[in-house]
Amino acid sequence: MTQSPPKTYHVKSFGCQMNVYDGERMSELLTARGMTPASEGAEADLVVLNTCHIREKAVDKVYSDIGRLKREDGSRPMIAVAGCVAQAEGSEITRRTKAVDIVVGPQAYHRLPGLIDDVVAGREAVDTDMPAHSKFELLPGRTRRSGPSAFLTVQEGCDKFCTYCVVPYTRGAEVSRPWSAILDEARALIDAGAREITLLGQNVNAWTGEDEAGRMQGLDALIRALDRLPGLARIRYTTSHPNDMTQELIEAHAEVPKLMPFLHLPVQAGSDRILKAMNRSHSRESYLRILERVRAARSDIALSGDFIVGFPGETDAEFEETLSIVREARYAQCFSFKYSPRPGTPAADMADQIAADVMDERLQRLQAALNTHQHAFNQATVGKRTTILLERKGRHPGQLIGKTPWLQSVHIDAASAAIGDLIEVDILSAGPNSLAGLIASRQAA
Ligand code: 5AD
Ligand code: SF4
Questions:
Q1: What is the structure's pLDDT at 445?
Q2: Which end of the chain is less packed: N or C, by CB atoms within 10 Å?
Q3: pLDDT tens readout for residues 207-231
């Protein structure tokens, strides 16, 4: 069946920050093709669901979303499934639901315009290639106005093969973008309004590349090069793997003024036996030693992590080791998940899958512990003066929300400040998830 060419679009991203970045690039691509974003509340001619495959729940969401796109008169928009579900399930998706017109993987979305033409012409539109040519070389330059805080993907894919994780299969092998392409994109983002750039990668600290002089460099050198860009105020990076946490990168935390004191360094579990079964290739002790070195370089650093409870075979005693590593690490914030068996991963076939009620209880206990630490970290900033970058409006009139260097959200009443400003605030109070502040004095931007 042929369809008329879509004129408006809406891109909806799920999952990680790399998907948010890909969603922005797809929007720019569709705009370059002459399409316009559908206005708030209006129905788009093309809906792109930019999906996440990391846990089963995320995948279920896609299919329920597709069902909801059906209109009252029985018609529906053109639907594209992009992202990691597209990569993992491919044409299985169009077989399972006829409502989907396009399936496009995370390494092939630069071909979205051609796939739209295929649908219009009545051809099959499934593309889950991992082409030799990087999509980045073929995408149009950054065109949209940027918010004060922008994402920039510098590295994709993963070679670590943790036994629970689909990422090495959906995003492919580790690939670093070239030095000059990253710096060009950073300059474009700054020109478009960005004051903070977060460098993104599945293993961002595995980034390597040649600098202008042809010397091989790591993420630390890239961060130092970004530090020299005028107009940029803050640099962050995420997500890192413990094994790629080089001494040079740790030292950058002590030496690079624009690098924010925040590190997201997942450990996943506290027991060496579970870490081994997860194929994490680091131990509890080696991880804790890295945290010590990071704290020695930057004593005020806020640490963050990811945890999985209920990995196959995890005993009560092994789970207790996760609780004790949380106490030792003193995280500022964390993400925690119930283990979700993913098709095609080694852990999905392991014996001793953990019962749902055991996982529920472990997750509750872990989250209670993590919340206590997060609250204590937030509480410790009360009474302090710090700088925040104002990023968005709050719920109440006149209220703005900004981020501290440690990535905490601060609500302020902001008659004399605007989004994009870096301002000094006094922290008045702390809740579990955010802080309240009062403007101290306007800073020269
Ligand atoms: N089940 C539960 N959590 C998972 N993660 C990755 N794979 C799984 C899975 N199969 C979590 C890890 C990772 C984060 C992005 O998602 O904690 O760091
Ligand atoms: Fe997945 Fe492990 Fe790679 Fe992270 S390091 S993306 S958890 S395989």
A1: 43
A2: N
A3: 999 999 999 999 999 999 999 999 9
Q: How far is the CA of 240 from the centre of ligand 2 (A)?
A: 10
Global pTM reads 0.94
Q: Is residue 141 exposed (0-12), middle (13-18) or buried (19+ Cβ within 10 Å)?
A: exposed
Instruction: Judge whether 227 and 180 are in contact, CB under 8 Å.
Output: no
Q: Is 241 in the pocket of ligand 2 (CB under 6 A)?
A: yes
Cβ partners under 8 Å of residue 59, min gap 6 = 51, 52, 53, 85
Look up tokens 């995408």; give the residue.
139
349 shares a domain with 257:
yes
Q: Is the CB of 162 under 6 A from ligand 2?
A: yes
Q: Which residue has the higher pLDDT, 68 or 199?
A: 199
Residue nearest to atom 2 of ligand 1 (CA): 339
Q: Is residue 133 part of a domain?
A: no
135 assigned to some structural domain: no
The answer to whether 381 and 404 have CB atoms below 8 angstroms apart is yes
